[in-house]
Design brief:
The chain is an alpha+beta fold. Flavin mononucleotide (FMN) binds next to helix 6 and strand 17.
Length: 501
């Protein structure tokens, strides 16, 4: 059996085993960021449009070119993707909160910038230092960019990009708390960050291509990563607006591995590596989109995509400001939210171009199915629905109030029961692995994280609240959705009316 399937089984939460966690060793908690010393690099902090600027303490500097090909655009792109947007004071210290949410606030993802040719930044490799919002020079010259292009099998968008970012995951930051299941959350977290990066790129007059198809060893060597501690998860190629360069790809299959491997975080990451020679592309096309669109077609449909979703959403001109004020909702009131609001949140997430957010990248989007448990949406009968993602049509799987089931499957968290709607992403894991090998596990979770980020931002933009839910009883969730237990529940996002006090 594939390692991804065995890993998924081995990391399921179940009511009778959830209490067996050994407890947290606070002495061993890893830092949530890399420490970069020295001053060689580029200070991005003065270029932020914040008043007062939290890094400099002063007013924002007047900047003529903050979009397109400018250093200010890079400063903003990185900041709105993964910069520090709040600091919470706590007993015993303070915690930085970042623009992208992170399971447990552990922030396992790192960003490395690789510059070929951009105003104000010499070619080279830089580590992003979130505490100072600056780039720390790690290696100079054009060599790293060439090595990444080679590792990405000559992907033309990577080859043409004047700026690249490699997103990595530092395993122990999340494994420290979540043990082997941390791998799911590291990928989901990284997906959220990439979701921000895609939206911010569009808002800043840039274009982003994201690929998770590269030779791992080539990227690790170029960045000098210790593969036991940190894994490369995605390459983001940034460029000016224009058509996508071809050939390029976002997902390629990993070769089959022996059965003997352990179903652990490290084992699955290793087993899902891509070799030095480009694997053959797996043809995906119309038929897969049609299959997503026609599933559950026997059920009476309720189309949400009314006139409210036809034009730009009210907040689509303020995407960056929305990123700045986004926080995960900690408590819902239990009140209903209007049907149109849900419709616009879903449109932003599944049809972003339709409401003014630009074409947003995905790795292999047609692999994910969406279900929604409607708890309190004005004008929609409570129940569990399948969502046809292009028509935004809800197709009833079962009617009846799912509130208590939603609370239970979210490990008893009230965020599940008091939500207005709970969005589930699921996948036919066996089918995905058949086509894409164990690497499918990465693509699925990265994509679910990206959609999750759009759900979060759109909810905040619409005056509602949202949170990711990484902890859930897998098999009970599948039962609620009416899917076989061997289908993977990849991610849950709750949406609702925030409690005011
Ligand atoms: C993958 C993922 C899983 C999460 N799971 C939960 C969860 O189960 N329960 C919860 O209350 N918050 C969850 N969160 C929200 C985080 O706790 C939150 O992002 C983090 O504390 C940082 O706060 P912020 O999102 O407000 O910046 C999750 C976030 C992500 C990205």
């Amino acid at each position: 059996m594939s390692l991804a399937i065995r890993f998924h089984e081995a990391t399921k939460y179940a009511p009778d085993t959830i209490g067996s966690h050994p407890g947290l060793d606070w002495e061993r908690q890893p830092r949530a960021y890399k420490e970069y010393h020295g001053d060689s690099g580029v200070d991005l902090a003065p270029l932020l449009p914040l008043d007062p600027n939290p890094f400099t303490g002063g007013p924002p500097e007047p900047i003529a070119f903050a979009t397109g090909r400018s250093l200010a655009a890079i400063s903003r792109w990185i900041y709105f993707a993964y910069g520090v947007t709040a600091i919470v004071r706590q007993p015993g210290g303070s915690q930085m909160l970042r623009a992208a949410p992170s399971a447990g606030g552990l922030y396992p993802a790192e960003m490395y910038l690789v510059v070929r040719d951009w105003p104000g930044i010499e070619p080279g490799l830089y580590g992003y230092d979130p505490r100072r919002h600056r780039l720390a020079l790690l290696d100079d010259g054009p060599g790293v960019a060439s090595a990444l292009t080679q590792a990405a099998y000559g992907d033309a968008a990577v080859a043409a990009a004047p700026v690249l970012v490699v997103v990595t995951g530092v395993f122990e930051r999340s494994r420290w708390r979540y043990q082997e299941r941390a791998y799911r959350r590291i990928l989901l977290d990284s997906g959220h960050l990439i979701g921000n990066a895609g939206l911010a790129a569009h808002a800043l007059g840039l274009r982003m291509h994201a690929t998770a198809a590269f030779c791992d060893e080539g990227v690790e060597r170029a960045l000098r990563l210790d593969d036991a501690e940190e894994g490369a998860l995605a390459i983001l190629a940034l460029n000016l607006p224009g058509p996508l360069e071809r050939p390029s790809w976002t997902a390629l299959p990993s070769p089959a591995v022996e059965d003997a491997q352990e179903p652990s975080l490290a084992g699955l990451h290793r087993a899902s590596r891509l070799p030095a020679r480009r694997p053959h592309l797996v043809a995906r096309g119309e038929e897969d989109s049609i299959a997503l669109e026609t599933a559950h077609g026997w059920a009476a449909g309720d189309r949400l995509a009314g006139p409210g979703c036809a034009g730009p959403a009210p907040w689509s001109g303020e995407v960056l400001a929305t990123m700045l004020r986004r926080r995960s909702c900690r408590r819902f009131s239990g009140n209903a939210i209007p049907r149109d609001v849900l419709a616009r949140i879903l449109a932003a997430s599944y049809l972003p171009e339709r409401i003014g957010l630009g074409d947003q990248p995905g790795f292999d989007r047609t692999r994910l199915s969406t279900f929604i448990a409607v708890i309190a949406i004005d004008g929609v009968e409570p129940g569990v629905y399948y969502l046809a993602p292009h028509q935004l049509e809800l197709r009833a799987v079962r009617l009846g109030d799912p509130r208590e089931s939603a609370r239970f499957i979210a490990l008893g968290q009230d965020l599940g029961g008091d939500a207005a709607a709970v969005v589930f992403h699921t996948a036919d894991l066996a089918g995905c692995v058949r086509d894409l090998g164990d690497r499918a596990y990465r693509y699925l979770h990265l994509d679910a994280g990206q959609i999750g980020q759009r759900l979060n931002l759109a909810a905040v933009g619409e005056g509602a609240g949202a949170s990711g839910i990484g902890g859930f009883f897998d098999d009970h969730t599948a039962d609620l959705l009416g899917i076989p237990r061997d289908q993977a529940v990849v991610y849950i996002t709750v949406i609702g009316a925030p409690a005011t006090a």
